Structure formats: C-alpha cells, structure tokens
Amino acid sequence: MDEYDRRHFIRTSLPGFLGLTMALPGLNAIATRANACNGRLAEKQPINWDAFLEAVEKEASRQHLDDWNEAAYVARASLLCSRLNLKDEHLLKAFKKAHRGLGNKRVDFEPLEKQRDFHVTLLQFEKEEAIPHHNHPEMTGVILCASGKIETKNYDLLPDKMEKDHVLLQETNHDFLKKGVVSSLTSKKRNIHWLQAHETTQLVDIFAPPYNKERIEKSSWFDVDPEPFSEKGNPRIHKAKKR
Ligand SMILES: [Fe+2]
Fold first, then answer.
1. Ligand 1: distance of its center to the CA of 184 in Å?
2. CA 73 to ligand 1 center in whole angstroms
3. Residue 199: which residues within 8 A CB-CB, separation 6 or more?
4. Cα 96–98–101 angle (5° rounding)?
5. How far, in Å, is the centroid of ligand 1 from the Cα of 134?
6. What's the gap in Å between 204 CA and the centre of ligand 1?
7. Across all residues in the chain, what is the average pLDDT?
8. Are 73 and 106 in contact (CB under 8 A)?
9. CATH number assigned to the domain covering 86-242
10. pLDDT tens column, 92-144
11. pLDDT in tens, 177-208
12. Ligand 1 centroid vs 217 CA: distance in angstroms?
C-alpha cells in the first residue's frame, strides 16, 4: 500500500479538508501554511516546510521536460531555500533529533524527505568534520546552511585526458557558509565539492534527481593535490586521483 504523509494528505483530500476548516480554524491555519507557495503569502515572507516541499516538488518535476534548465532550477531552488523558515516546527524537531549524533565523530545524515524527483537530507557536522572531495553524477544539489559555519570548495572536472584514474579539477568556488547562506551545483558546474566545518553545522541539502543505485555506483571520490599546479593569477587547477 502507498504511504501518504501529512502534506500529501492535505493536498489529496482538499475538498473535504476545506469543509472541515469552516468548523476548525486551527486546521485553516495549516492549510494556509501549506499553500504559501500559491500566492497566499507575500513574496518574500518566510515559507514553512510544507510549502517549501510543495514548491521544490513543482520545480524538480520539470527535470523530465525537454527544456529543463539545470541552472535555472538551482537558482529557483536556492531562492526557496533562502526563504525557508528555519524555525518551522518540523525542522526544529529534525535539528534537535540530529543532536543525538553529537560526539559520534562522524558526519550525520538524517533523511527529511524522499520523492521521485528529489530528496532532502539534513547533514550535521561537528567542528573539523569534513566530507572529502566527491562528485554527484548527473545530479543537481542545493545546500542551505541552517546553523554553524562550514568551508566549502567546488570544482569543475576538466575534459583534459590524464594518465589512468587521474583527472584535472578547476577550483571554481571557495566559500564559508553561515546560517541562511545557500550553495549549489549542477551536473556540469561545481559538481565536485569538499566541505569542512569550522563549528557545529547543520545543512539542508536538496538533490534532484535523488540518489538511486545507479547514481551511487557512478559516484566518485578524489584525492586532490592541495596546491594547484597552475601559476598564480590563473585559474586554480589541481591534479586529482580517483579513489
Ligand atoms: Fe556532496
């Protein structure tokens, strides 16, 4: 049997639900929150978790169209992330739940939402914890820093042929993400990245399309020479070896 979460229940049973709201003002408030992305709230007003998911679902579903534009999608998804109300009850619960992982000396992953076209995951790092250089094959990623401070570097894979298992990576971004700051990658641009927390940090990641068996198998990890071999003033190009 299919599983239906609270958000889909609200959406799929709307006529009956609207009837109930006449008698139950509390439920009406929930309906308003869930429909925030349909113009019932001001453009720049923070959006709650349900409205956020509904809007991301709509944007991510476009990936099946011929005119799918990854760059435009990550721009729109980044905007949605910047509007997400980080004090939403659902998120506060998830942030608190993730605290159970504090002290376990590894990055924690908490699934927040999984759909056909995207998934959202909460990542929690403690100070100095890092995720080594890796790619996201044929995927886009939008990363919202919900708390803390984390250093990130992104790279483009260059087409130049190297000896077996070696590649050239051009460093395109070097950022320090703080609360409310969003980073993104597409299948072609900034697709490879590295992250290291400077303090306890929580990130909300959207990946579209979501990871599946094939994309996990295609994923690569890299050992990257820390010093670029390109000369000063030129794009920073690093030699790297696929693990
Ligand atoms: Fe990643």
1. 10
2. 18
3. 127, 148, 149
4. 125
5. 6
6. 12
7. 87
8. no
9. 2.60.120.10
10. 999 999 999 999 999 999 999 999 999 999 999 999 999 999 999 999 999 99
11. 999 999 999 999 999 999 999 999 999 999 99
12. 14
